[in-house]
Amino acid sequence: MKLAPTCLLGLLTLSATCAMAGAPEIVGGKPAPDGRYPWMVPLLISNVADNFKAQWCGGSLVSPTKVLTAAHCIGQQFDILIGSQDLKSGEGRRVRVASATKHPQYRSRDDSYDLAVLTLTEPVYDVTPVRFISTIEEEAQYMPDDRRLVVVGYGNTRSGGNPSSILRQVKVPVVNRDTCNQAPMYANQIGNTEFCAGYVEGGKDSCQGDSGGPIFRRGKTAQDDVQVGIVSWGFGCAVANKPGVYDRLGVTGQWVKDQIALP
């Protein structure tokens, strides 16, 4: 059975398969440069007015009307926040989510195909959507073994800690799939739609609250960034021999493109 840390949101304690969701913060990272990742959007619970208290999961704008996130995050009425990366600043604007579509093969018992596409009530034209991969060939190009990728989010800065009000980032290397599927790592728990990224010794990771957020190859500018995966689950946060587990867009990205093509 896959194990995930408990997700925390305000005074509520939830035990869903929110691997690194519910409100995680990056562990072992640092604040993201202001405005560097405008396409990264937090998912906010619509009926909670305070942006910091409303933060639930992460997401990425993949078209003017579509946001990519994790399937296990779905279950609330969400807004996304555009134009701010400080949830306590009062800046930015909320855009309501009209509908959410989980991948049809998503399985909550093992978090395979852990992705969903949100459709917004109005288009966002002042932010350039992030590019993302959708083929195995692109995966080989953008995320070979040991390649350091960037993860961003508002999640906990340590396991069992508190979420961050400011967007944070951390770099983690891709872990060879065969290695991650062996003990003492995840011993045959990593499916074909997943990959691992993190350090054998631990110390840097995504965490509770970061679920649904992007892991990506950082470019020179936001327009050059390329998303390769989605924060999905893990055992604790930044634990030795337990890297973060991410949805693998090299396998699932074509489905995302199909959703973007829909009205």
Can you describe this structure?
- This protein is mainly beta and 263 residues long.
- Helices cover 11% and strands 32% of the residues.
- It contains four helices and 16 strands.
- The strands form three sheets. The chain has a six-stranded antiparallel β-barrel.
- Strand 5 (55-63) and strand 6 (66-69) form a beta hairpin.
Q: Tally of extended strands? A: 16
Number of helices: 4
> Into which percentage range does the β-strand content fall?
25-35%
Helix content: 10-25%
Average predicted confidence as pLDDT: 88
Distance between the termini: 38 Å
**CA-atom Rg in angstroms:** 16 Å
Q: Rough shape?
A: globular
Order of helices and strands: EEEEHEEEEEEHEEHEEEEH
The biggest sheet, with number of strands, parallel, antiparallel or mixed sense and barrel status, is:
6 strands, antiparallel, barrel
Class inferred from helices and paired strands: mainly beta
Strand order of the largest sheet: 11-12-13-16-15-14
Low-confidence stretches: 1-25
